[in-house]
Amino acid sequence: MRERLGRWLAPPDPGRAAAADLLRVFCVFMVGWYHIWQQSWLSPVLRVGRFRLDLTPQVRTGYMFVDLMLVLSGFLTYLPYANRRERPAGAFYLRRALRILPSYWLCLAVMLAFAVAEPDYADGPRLFRDLLAHLGFVQNLFGFSYNSTRLNVVLWTLAVEVQFYLILPALAPVFRRHPLPVYLAMTGAGLCFMFLWTAPMADTVLYVNRLPNMLVVYANGMLAAYLYARLARAEARRGLIAALGTLACVAAAWAVFRILREQSHVSGYEELRHGQLNWRWLLSLCGGAFLAGGSLGVAPLRALLSNPPARFLSAVSFNFYIWHQWLAVKLKQWRIPPYLAASDPNRVGESPWQLRYTLTCFLAALALATLLTWLVERPCARWGRRLAEKLRARLFPGLESGAEP
After folding, report:
1. Which of 43, 56, 109, 316 has the fewest CB atoms within 10 Å, i.e. is most exposed?
2. Contacts of 392 (CB under 8 A, 6+ apart)
3. How far apart are CA 234 and CA 7, in angstroms?
4. Which is it for the CA torsion 103, 388, 76, 232, positive or negative?
5. Residue 405 has pLDDT above 50, yes or no
6. Confidence (pTM)
7. Rounded-to-integer distance, Cα 29 and Cα 58, Å
């Protein structure tokens, strides 16, 4: 009995959060389901015999999971600082660049090739401005590159991420020394931007997803990482921490689904964006509680949250995310799978097509993401690390390597 209890209460690794794997997979899956549902209109109700599971509120509010993805980013990028294992700023930027840029540039190249073929988009100035904004990761600041882009609308998320990466090496050490004041400052600034600047606007489309409005999200992710790093080392009260962590994880998951259910009752584009603003701090707080609590919880819970399938899907999730929406639109245009209607089979309710199309979109995006992760992302990252090491050895022969991504 004591041996079994000891296994249940095995301490977690402070440098790795088990809950991160499942949260990343679930968020990317739900955002993907939302975008695919926009094309298919397939009712997200699962029936097995008498069992009925209605996921309509969660799928209709799939856009809300982007905030949870950013919570996860704040958590993971700050965790090395919380554990005092941070790298120099240059090494941090190199690590992020090798993680993002190869897949991102390839995605932009393909999108650009298709966009150039569109007659109303092929004029030089419009194409150049759109591409330049995406290359500079500022596409979320301009209408022509945000809600009117022909490249890939989901890439605005990466713009917010990169903008946050730019300030993190300066922000993180201050947060570690003064966690509560910096957390309150970030949260206060974010709430002011949301409710004093963005919310009163007649049209918030260009402002709701800018970095200042996301400060509360990143603050909650960083706070969760700070608490996790401290509590993961508290061996004396491991039983109590594991119990409370498990309860926090379950309660946070329940709260997220309650928030999504409330948001699903909102209609109208402007009303949806105001709903995002209203829920953003609480939703991201729940995301942070899920991450810290699940990663501190009992060992069986951590095994459920992080296992080989979850780690594999987590590894390919970045490429799945940046390709799924564009691929879903193209598959529909290419009539894959075929449908009977002249156009828009979702509008006439072609039920067999709706199901086949939804499954095809998920499988195609997953297959493409797997190929690109192992044929592009990881080889380019390895090549970039080797090149960086050679340059470091040539330019600074007496300096120890600290730029390993």
Report:
1. 109
2. 399, 401, 403
3. 16
4. positive
5. no
6. 0.93
7. 11
Task: Give the model's pLDDT for residue 11.
Answer: 83
Residue labelled with tokens 């009995």 = 1
What pLDDT, in 10s, does the model give residues 234-246?
888 889 999 999 9
DSSP-derived secondary structure letter, 235: G
Alpha carbon distance 385, 313 (integer Å): 24
Output DSSP code: residue 45. Answer: E
Q: Which residue in this structure is represented by tokens 């501190």? A: 296
Q: What tokens does 253 get?
A: 């998951």
Contact status, residue 275 vs residue 324, Cβ threshold 8 Å: no
Strand pairing category for 51-54 and 45-48 = antiparallel
Three-state secondary structure call for residue 25: helix
Tens of pLDDT along 317-326? 999 999 999 9
> What is the rounded CA–CA span in Å between residue 272 and residue 69?
19
Cα–Cα distance, 28 to 315 (Å, whole number): 12
Name the residue with tokens 């797997």: 370
Q: What are the CA-CA distances from residue 170 to residues 41, 123, 175, 222, 278 (Å)?
A: 45, 41, 9, 14, 29
* Cα–Cα dist 390/280, whole Å: 44
Which ranges of 15-88 does DSSP label H, i.e. alpha helix?
Answer: 19-40, 56-60, 65-82
The whole-angstrom separation of Cα 34 and Cα 325 is: 9
CA angle 275, 289, 279 (to 5 degrees): 5
User: Is residue 65 classed exposed, middle or buried when 0-12, 13-18 and 19+ CB atoms within 10 A define those classes?
Assistant: buried
- pLDDT tens digits, one per residue of 216-263: 999 999 999 999 999 999 888 889 999 999 999 999 999 999 999 999
Closest by Cα among 137, 86, 135, 127 to 108: 135
**Token pair of 337, please?**
């799978």
Max distance between CA atoms of the chain, in angstroms, equals 73
**Residues in a beta bridge with 54:** 45
Task: Copy the structure tokens of residue 296.
Answer: 């501190």
